[in-house]
UniProtKB/TrEMBL annotation:
Residues 224-288 form the Chromo domain. Pfam families: Chromo, Ty3_capsid. InterPro entries: Chromo-like_dom_sf (IPR016197), Chromo/chromo_shadow_dom (IPR000953), Chromo_domain (IPR023780), Ty3_capsid (IPR045358). This is Chromo domain-containing protein.
């Protein structure tokens, strides 16, 4: 029979904090300290502060020595764990973080946007989950926000995970999918009015992707032949006839310029469609209720 001592689990010590001005590192330090307090059932507030200071090193040690001296002179009071945490989140820092979050926009890659938002939210400890989710969604580009709403995200963690997956979704084989810089090209974005002369939203890095019945091959002499078909999407919506479209790269056009074309407009290129269907390695992703996309990279 195992003894009581043998069954005990040793609680890992928290990592030390050096004072690096990195919001994620600070937030992780405080979070791990709180998990450590729970694991050793430390309830006394003063003891929590005293224990946490044992894991301060370098510049934070000097900072605490000055704070401790101020406490002895009754200049300041740090008696609870919340008092201690507030020392790392000055009011002006939280205010500036809120201000920066309000002006943060998804202008470049979605990966950079998620990273910047994550950093800012760690500097605002008293912002509610509901507020954070609203700000995260509201600052996204239209296509990305619509995609998250289609997937029915209800909390911040899920929203950020789905947003990051959009980036992963479009990467694929970097040597083959350069033209699909934006996940909208994968069929994951919001539908836009079928005005084929209107520019698409997004960053300057977005490919020239045109929606739906965009480039019919007869519209210009240099659009005589399909180079290859990159993807297929099938749209099913209640009360609307099923729509089949293919993401086409045309011969004679820049590599990054692709377009979604209705299947009816591609009848003369049935051999390309047949090869896409029969030979390509495909994978399917549900992008919204009633809409699926089969992606293939050639």
């Amino acid at each position: 029979m195992a003894t009581h001592e043998a069954s005990r689990v040793e609680v890992p010590k928290p990592h030390r904090f050096s004072g690096n001005r990195d919001a994620k590192e600070l937030d992780n330090f405080l979070w791990h300290m709180e998990r450590y307090f729970e694991a050793i059932t430390l309830m006394d507030e003063t003891a929590k502060v005293r224990t946490a200071t044992l894991y301060l090193i370098d510049t934070t040690t000097l900072w605490w020595r000055r704070r401790f001296a101020d406490m002895e002179k009754d200049i300041c009071t740090i008696e609870t764990w919340e008092d201690f945490k507030r020392q790392f989140y000055p009011e002006d820092v939280a205010y500036l973080a809120r201000k920066n979050m309000r002006h943060l926009k998804h202008a470049g890659s979605i990966h950079d946007y998620v990273k910047e938002f994550s950093s800012l939210m760690l500097e605002i400890p008293n912002m509610t989950e509901k507020e954070l989710l609203f700000n995260f969604m509201d600052n996204l580009q239209g296509w990305a926000e619509q995609e998250l709403r289609h997937r029915g995200v209800q909390d911040l963690a899920t929203a950020m995970a789905v947003a990051k997956s959009l980036t992963d979704y479009k990467k694929g084989d970097s040597s083959k999918v350069e033209s699909l810089e934006d996940s909208h090209a994968m069929g994951g974005g919001d539908k836009v009015p079928r005005d084929h002369n209107a520019p698409k939203k997004g960053s300057g890095k977005m490919p020239n992707v045109r929606e739906g019945r965009g480039l019919h091959p007869s519209e210009a002499s240099w659009e005589k032949e399909v180079k290859n078909i990159l993807a297929k999407r099938v749209t099913r919506r209640q009360g609307v006839p099923l729509v089949i479209e293919y993401l086409v790269r045309w011969k004679g056009l820049p590599k990054r310029q692709v377009s979604w074309e209705h299947a009816d407009a591609l009848r003369k290129f049935w051999k390309h469609i047949e090869r896409f269907q029969n030979e390509a390695t495909t994978r399917t992703s549900t992008t919204s209720v009633g809409e699926s996309v089969t992606i293939c990279f050639k």
